[in-house]
Write a structure and sequence with these properties.
about 350 residues; four-stranded mixed β-sheet; globular
Length: about 350
């Protein structure tokens, strides 16, 4: 793995406040007031952390805001740097479902009030964390494939993915196993990376970052298997099941335990985790928590499709969020199950 240090280590915390304020102003210019905009997460490590934002409004207002947002990303370097990904552009019709599809930890309203931007949810939402883990496992594996092809890896991207995976790992709770390697927390790894970059110790940086990212993935896989095993009944699935899921450039295989293969386009999933993945692909599940997630996702996909606004939530397993591409992926996998599936 070759790593490129693209982190702006000296970016001041004040830049986050300035960029966040400009986002609120931009939204207000498009008819999305401060009571309909907000932020979640936290900028715990300036220079690495990004800005997580959302705005709630009708389709045309969201489209205008997104256009202005993209223009500003191109004109203002700090704005583009801190908005690593798109804000969550949320239609009023899906407000009740949004919290089922995204954790949005530490969500706060831009106007400083204590009003809730989104309704709360009940339960611990462990299945949502499983969906996130599948998404991150896929994304991280693809990153290692890119690295094997000789492309340098963005240090900031690696550190952001590590924090997400570490957070997901912790959210699963206990589930340690004998011999589990000690892991650094997200801020610990970022501070270590910062010091190594300033000393020019590139080789040591690569070894540590790669080991910590893969270690967090390994532990998260184990804990995900524990959570899925407690909540998902593998019986009652499709009448025929090939034991494979084919998505865009990746194969998921039912295996004894969940495991990733760095540099290869193949991921093994333990039977309960595989069941979650296939339930998501086909849009139905006998697990109540998964059914609730799938129903919310379907309502949201339909609402965004009708409104002509891009669906803003994650698409696990690289399955297209909506439209004909998703239909093709589903049809291919149904054909595989029909031909090679064991009854």
């Amino acid at each position: 793995m070759r790593i490129t240090d693209d982190v702006r280590w000296d970016l001041p915390k004040e830049a986050y406040a300035a960029v966040s304020a400009r986002f609120v102003d931009l939204c207000q210019e498009c008819g999305l007031g401060p009571d309909k905009t907000g932020f979640f997460g936290e900028a715990g490590f300036p220079g690495v952390s990004d800005v997580d934002a959302l705005a709630i409004g009708e389709a045309e207002a969201l489209r205008r805001a997104r256009r202005k947002h993209e223009e500003l990303r191109g004109k203002w370097p700090e704005y583009g740097y801190l908005f690593w990904h798109q804000p969550l552009w949320i239609l009023p019709a899906v407000v009740a479902d949004a919290a089922e599809l995204h954790t949005m930890d530490n969500l706060r309203c831009a106007n400083g009030s204590s009003d809730r931007l989104l309704p709360g949810t009940t339960g611990d939402r462990k299945i949502l964390q499983v969906i996130w883990a599948l998404f991150l496992l896929d994304a991280a594996t693809r990153m290692t494939v890119t690295s094997e092809l000789g492309s340098p890896m963005s240090l900031r991207r690696l550190l952001l993915v590590h924090k997400n995976m570490h957070h997901t790992m912790v959210s699963f709770g206990n589930g340690e196993r004998a011999g589990e390697r000690p892991l650094l927390g997200a801020d610990e790894l970022r501070e270590t990376a910062k010091n190594l970059c300033r000393r020019g110790e590139t080789a040591e940086l690569t070894v540590i970052v790669e080991a910590q990212l893969l270690g967090a993935l390994e532990v998260a896989c184990h804990r995900m298997d524990v959570v899925c095993g407690e909540r998902v009944d593998v019986a009652g699935g499709p009448a025929r099941d090939s034991g494979w899921i084919v998505t865009r450039g990746m194969l998921f295989q039912r295996a004894p335990t969940t495991a990733f293969h760095p540099g290869k386009r193949r991921i093994g999933l333990a039977p309960p985790a595989f069941r979650v993945a296939k339930d998501h692909l086909y849009g139905r599940s006998e697990c109540a928590e998964m059914s609730r997630y799938l129903a919310a996702e379907k309502r949201c996909r339909l609402a965004y499709g009708r409104a002509g606004v891009e669906y803003p939530f994650i698409a696990p397993l690289a399955v297209a969020r909506c439209g004909w591409r998703r239909g093709i992926v589903t049809a291919v996998n149904r054909l595989m199950d029909a031909i090679w599936g064991a009854p």
